[in-house]
């Protein structure tokens, strides 16, 4: 049986590491790259090679910086009393899009997942506590995934932060906008009931 | 509203050009690339930059070569009397996997699609006819997509090749293996009827 050329196989192996990309999709990507012109391939390759050097995370909040200044850490325009804890730097953009939050962010970078070796140490709690003290944060909002890992992390952080007398809240659980009750799972419905709001 | 860093946006624009990748998926890819280590990013970038130089198409049949020799053109081990016409170099690997075909291949590189400016000239027919003459091909098998473009191309090639008295066949149309009649569309079913085989 004939195999793909060696260099194509290497490229396919790299493409397969992208999230949600399996063997077939990676092959499709590789063959489509073969049809790009040289300039496009060069620019794409350049973008990947220089990615980490050009796009760096803010040492303070962990959000991505465009240039040398972190626009998420601009305390002159943002509310220092509110700190929103997020799992990945990408979440900050989603929250900014809502236009609802004017506080500061704190990127954990990872969620608790003992099986993958992500223990509380990976969360770098001392840095978080230092920031909270320095900024004079009054409320910490936990905006983590509503998954096993996210919930475990939220619970852990809540306990640790409340020890220091910090007010902790987390995002509301309930019906997504535009959803029909028929299609909402039991867990969500039950959370929506217990978290019902005065109307 | 805060935007992604400039360099990340450029990378996302490149990723969006991959087939089936929209804005959201490209963003997911870009953020996942941020988590790769430097070595992986370097190798990936290198693989893309050198792709076209290292993976080249055979000037004769259009299939991809692994090194300097085309393993699809090895006439000592393959049947010169059979020529299979395929749309893209990738199709040759799928056909090789069946283990059913021992002839030679001819990659068109494109299908007829007048709206996209793909006219009969793009098919490079003179080269195909030269190959047929030189190899002494007795039967040409059209193995093109069963789409509008594929069918138009098959029809065009059939007429052109039959003018020169070459025997032309095309892949059978019918039920895919393991399919249930309930789920088969009318067109396929009708083709399966008209192409029914003695049993």
Automatic annotation (TrEMBL), chains A, B:
CDD domains associated with the record: TOPRIM_recR
UniProt KW keywords: DNA damage, DNA recombination, DNA repair, Metal-binding, Zinc, Zinc-finger
Keyword check for Zinc-finger: yes
SUPFAM superfamilies: Recombination protein RecR (SSF111304)
InterPro entries the UniProt entry points to: DNA_Rcmb_RecR, Rcmb_RecR, TOPRIM_dom, TOPRIM_RecR
One Pfam family recorded for the sequence: RecR_C
SMART domains attached to this UniProt entry: TOPRIM
Ranges for domain Toprim: 81-176
Source superkingdom: Bacteria
Record carries keyword Zinc: yes
Primary role: May play a role in DNA repair. It seems to be involved in an RecBC-independent recombinational process of DNA repair. It may act with RecF and RecO.
HAMAP family for this protein: RecR
Protein name as catalogued: Recombination protein RecR
